[in-house]
Write a structure and sequence with these properties.
The complex is a heterodimer. Chain A is mainly beta. Chain A is built from no helices and 11 strands. Chain B is globular. Classes of the chains: A mainly beta, B mainly beta. At the A-B interface, strand 10 of A face strand 4, strand 5, strand 9 and strand 10 of B.
Chain lengths: ~110, ~110
């Protein structure tokens, strides 16, 4: 049972445009959501997070939106840069940050 | 640089053998978790240790076991290796159980033949 779903395995965006990565979850106990970025041959790197008490969190070019009623979150990257090309994982936890459930990832390619 | 180092980076084992993977965390990181990432999948939670005690386990059989040591290092042991155990194994550490950034190591690639 995939509790965190990223239905788009890949996404291509032109440099300077907006990248929108989507994520859906099924477990209503999840109260903390995270996005990780992963380059080949490296471990995941924490990018941004959001608590279930918020609906938006912003950090520089990265904004995460949470729609609890739809059990949906999205990551917006504006403007997209070639260095953003990586695999992005959506993740969620309930009551303990390290017991994290990951999605299957979306490979983002930003085209110069 | 996350301050989390894992060894070995790559290894090949034969089905039925046993393997030990190691992780060294930053000083003060008293919580460590291990994840398994198969090709094309997201990391799957194996278990978590807090102050040297197991504090949560995912859907993995008992042949996956771990240890956490006072010097902020830890081990993942897998007995009776199966072909499906071939994956990237990630160690992640932080301080406490919630509220702090989690740092991942670069992983150990295990191939079982």
């Amino acid at each position: 049972d995939q509790q965190v779903k990223q239905n788009s395995p890949s996404l291509s965006v032109q440099e300077g445009r907006i990248s929108i990565l989507n994520c859906d979850y099924t477990n209503s106990m999840f109260d903390y959501f995270l996005w990780y970025k992963k380059y080949p041959a490296e471990g995941p790197t924490f990018l941004i997070s959001i608590s279930s008490i918020k609906d938006k969190n912003e950090d520089g070019r990265f904004t995460v939106f949470l729609n609890k009623s739809a059990k949906h979150l999205s990551l917006h990257i504006v403007p997209s840069q070639p260095g953003d090309s990586a695999v992005y994982f959506c993740a969620a936890s309930a009551g303990g940050y390290q017991k994290v459930t990951f999605g299957t990832g979306t490979k983002l390619q930003v085209i110069p | 640089e996350t301050g989390v180092t894992q060894s070995p980076t790559h290894l090949i084992k034969t089905r039925g053998q046993q393997v030990t993977l190691r992780c060294s965390s930053q000083s003060g990181h008293n919580t460590v978790s291990w994840y398994q990432q198969a090709l094309g999948q997201g990391p799957q939670f194996i278990f978590q240790y807090y102050r040297e005690e197991e504090n949560g386990r995912g859907n993995f059989p008992p042949r996956f076991s771990g240890l956490q040591f006072p010097n902020y290092s830890s081990e993942l042991n897998v007995n009776a290796l199966e072909l499906d155990d071939s994956a990237l194994y990630l160690c992640a550490s932080t301080v406490g159980l919630a509220g702090n950034t989690i740092y991942f190591g670069e992983g150990s690639w295990l191939t079982v033949v």
